[in-house]
Design a protein that fits this description.
Layout (H helix, E strand, L loop, with lengths): L1 H11 L40 H12 L3 H14 L4 H9 L11 H17 L4 H13 L8 H18 L4 H13 L9 H16 L4 H10 L10 H10 L4 H5 L1 H8 L2 H19 L6 H17 L3 H12 L11 H18 L3 H5 L14 H14 L2 H19 L5 H20 L3 H18 L8 H11 L3 H14 L4 H13 L3 H14 L8 H12 L1
């Protein structure tokens, strides 16, 4: 399901100490969590005491923007103010289920079960509220017998009934849509749940353009190559709906990255880091938000040739110490440090640097270092170093086995899929080009249908690189052009297509690709040889 996909992307990172508040100019004060409008407008009717309704609605607004720690606090405050408020217990349990991130820990499952038992005991006075509580109880029931996927699907089925029984309740529609996304089958090439969710949400978006959950979940629904364009209007709107949420300010970049809108992507994530710094001053655990934004920033900077800024972001993440991390996100940070280093080297075609990458010997989990061996394998392939490629594949396989036996075995499913990339480059390094391209083509086909991480290098482009290096310029050009449809405006995709066209003496086409690359990199101070080549050919035209 989507939760597993995101967890895997975090594990590969293909998904900084909090700063105190600085003196803010008047124009920036609206970013604080205090004002309702800074989190969006939510009206979630409950039968609790009238005095706690604003706090409950604030909790929902935070929840809709995945500010789970703050939403938990808001619902706890509502519960303390009105101990008879069953829905405040429900809200606390909702805040423990991070539906599009990863499965709850054993401890949080137990906490959620107890909270819902307490909510049920309070006997909410309306049938609607009882349905909400019963639906979430389905997720927190039989946690030792049913796996996460089955419980997520069961919760979504239960929320569908809440949605159907309460047709005027727009909050039920929003939460049902989220449950569809969280229970989406991992290999659904038709994006059935995504399309069902966006159909519901798009109608609601017209009616409630300031609702944070609606815009947010439209973006998630469309966060795949085939649907990204449908999410652009929500992406343009969401940050202004909830400017106090670092996650809300970041989320539009999921669509911007899919569409190759790099400057929009950069601005979105720079602002998200600024908001995360402000939230850090409130003693909230927001380092994972900052790391996620750094991921997108490094990727976007590389696409516009701004290697210096990408390196600065890489240095920022490498400076993070384990003592600064919320334990819940230690593995995420470690994955990011490894993944960013590998991506930076591979994107810049620094094969020797990639081959020299070293895993963190003190990593909390072996899977956080998988991207090191992914990068080594690709580099070894380009260097035709069969021994190094074989060693990278062996190390990757050891991580895969250990992960399958570890505390997060679901990550192994996605490591297994990425293993095809590692294996393909190992085959290529050994001179087995036909087998390598066949395997990489199969992996690219799957990515085209199912999707990939927003900041992952597309396998279709890796395949094109392999074909071009093998002297198959025509086949390479075809693959680059397919890749540029699913991942537009990528630096190496444009450059690779231009090179392939040049080799085929299609100079007009080459000039078009080079011109687009130069346009994307306008203002960059990069010394990358690819840009020098582009300038020479465009000037010659």
């Amino acid at each position: 399901m989507r939760a597993k996909l995101i967890a895997a992307n975090l594990a590969l990172a293909l998904a900084i100490a909090p700063y105190a508040f600085a003196q803010e100019p008047e124009s920036e004060r609206h970013h604080h969590h205090d004002g309702a409008d800074s989190l969006g407008r939510v009206h979630f009717p409950v039968s609790c005491a009238a005095a706690v309704e604003p706090t409950f609605n604030r909790g929902m607004a935070l929840l809709y923007s995945f500010e789970y720690e703050a939403s938990q606090e808001a619902f706890a405050k509502a519960s303390a103010a009105d101990p008879k408020c069953a829905m405040a217990k429900w809200g606390q349990a909702m805040s423990l289920y991070h539906q599009l991130w990863e499965p709850p820990s054993k401890e949080n499952l137990q906490r959620g079960e107890k909270l819902l038992a307490a909510a049920a005991k309070l006997k909410a006075p309306t049938a609607r509220e009882q349905e909400y509580i019963s639906a979430l109880t389905v997720f927190y029931t039989d946690t030792g017998k049913l796996d996460h996927e089955k419980r997520a699907r069961a919760y979504s089925d239960a929320m569908r009934k809440v949605y159907e029984h309460n047709p005027q309740d727009q909050e039920a529609a929003v939460l049902y849509s989220l449950s569809l996304l969280a229970s989406s089958p991992p290999n659904d090439t038709e994006h059935t749940n995504d399309r069902a969710a966006v159909a519901i949400l798009s109608h609601l978006f017209d009616e409630q353009p300031a609702h944070p959950g609606i815009a947010h979940y439209i973006i998630h629904s469309c966060d795949n190559p085939s649907m990204a364009g449908l999410g652009l209007a929500a992406a343009r709107k969401y940050a202004s709906i909830a400017p106090a949420s670092a996650h809300a300010v970041h989320m539009p970049s999921h669509i911007f990255a899919r569409l190759g809108l790099w400057q929009d992507d950069i601005q979105s994530n720079m602002k998200a880091i600024e908001i995360a710094n402000q939230m850090g001053g409130m003693h909230l655990h927001v380092l994972h938000h900052k790391i996620h934004s750094l991921d997108f920033l490094i990727y976007a900077y590389l696409q516009v040739g701004d290697d210096a800024s990408a390196k600065a972001m890489l240095d920022d993440i490498n400076a993070v110490k384990q003592s600064e991390l919320d334990p819940e996100y230690t593995d995420y940070a470690e994955s990011a440090q490894a993944g960013f280093a590998a991506t930076y080297a591979i994107e810049r075609r620094q094969w020797k640097d990639a081959l020299a990458l070293q895993p963190n010997p003190h990593a909390s989990a072996s899977y956080t270092q998988a991207s090191i061996y992914w990068g080594r394998a690709i580099a070894a392939g380009h260097l035709h170093d069969a021994a190094a490629a074989e060693a990278a594949l062996k190390a990757y396989d050891e991580i895969l086995v250990a992960t399958a036996k570890g505390s997060k075995p679901y990550i192994a499913d996605y490591l297994k899929e990425e293993r095809k990339v590692v294996q393909a480059w190992s085959l290529y390094a050994s001179g087995k080009t036909e087998e390598a391209t066949k395997l990489l083509d199969e992996h690219a086909d799957r990515q085209d249908k199912v999707g990939k991480g927003e900041t992952s290098i597309p396998s279709r482009e890796l395949l094109a690189d392999m074909l071009l290096e093998s002297g198959k310029a025509q086949e390479a050009l075809e693959q680059y052009e397919i890749a540029l449809k699913t991942d537009p405006n990528r630096f190496n995709g444009l450059y690779g297509a231009a090179r392939a066209a040049e080799q085929l003496q299609q100079n007009d086409k080459a000039a078009l690709y080079y011109a687009q690359l130069l346009k994307n990199c306008s203002g960059s101070q990069s010394d990358r040889p690819e840009l020098r080549q582009a300038r020479m050919l465009v000037a010659a035209k």
